[in-house]
Amino acid sequence: MSVFSIPSQGGLSSAQLTARAQGPAAPLARRMAAFTYEGVLLFGLVMAVGALYSIAVGQRHGLQGREGMMAAQFVSLAAYFMWFWTHGGQTLAMRTWQIRLLNASGGPISLWQALTRFLLCWLWFMPAWLAGWLAGWHQSKYLLGGMLVWALFYASISRLLPRQQFLHDLVCGTRVIDHRDQLPT
Question: How far is 32 from 158, CA to CA, in rounded Å?
């Protein structure tokens, strides 16, 4: 395949999906690339929801209606992920990086699995935020540094888990597979 050609999106059969669900996870580099790209896309979602919320409630100051804004952001993130995961198993970033979310048998995940996975995905951030709060860190450099160290640790422990899945995938019974037609050998 040429550098300038667009890769196909993986027209895998159900037998191929089942086989890949039983194998190892998609390469960690692909999953982390999708994770990073997802952050860029979610920035747009969060800004759009924030603008709509601010207009709807007449928010004139960032601290006015802060709890409602956080709830609206949380619900919009949950809706984004749960809808994409249950309707094809790929968010926009996962589609770009050609990875896909399946259940353990290679089929689509259930709504309950999507909700559980969304809540457990906060393991990427919440332990570092909690540790920073308990330590009394108020400077963003400490919080971001702690969060980066934790995220690297959380990603690296996937190497020790069965099929190299992330901890939240192991708990939810989901699999992130490489969805390319031909896997590199």
Answer: 12
How many other C-beta atoms can be found within 10 angstroms of the C-beta atom of residue 179?
A: 26
Using one digit for the tens of pLDDT, what is the confidence trace for 60-89?
877 778 899 999 999 999 999 999 999 999
Give yes or no for a contact between 27 and 34, defined as CB atoms under 8 angstroms apart.
no
**pLDDT recorded at residue 176:** 94
What are the CB-based long-range contacts (under 8 Å, 24+) for 122-126? 123/154, 123/167, 123/168, 124/150, 124/151, 124/154, 125/150, 125/151
State the Cα torsion 50-55-60-62 to the nearest 10°: -10
Please list, in sequence order, all residues whose beta carbon lies within 8 angstroms of the beta carbon of residue 157, skipping any fewer than 6 positions away: 167
The better pLDDT of the pair 146, 78 is held by 78
Q: How far is CA 7 from CA 35, 97, 100, 113, 147, in A?
A: 20, 10, 15, 30, 34
Task: Look at the pTM and tell me if it is higher than 0.90.
Answer: no
pLDDT tens digit sequence for 104-141 = 998 999 999 999 999 999 998 889 888 888 888 878 88
Pairing between β-strand 99-103 and β-strand 174-178 as defined by DSSP bridges: antiparallel
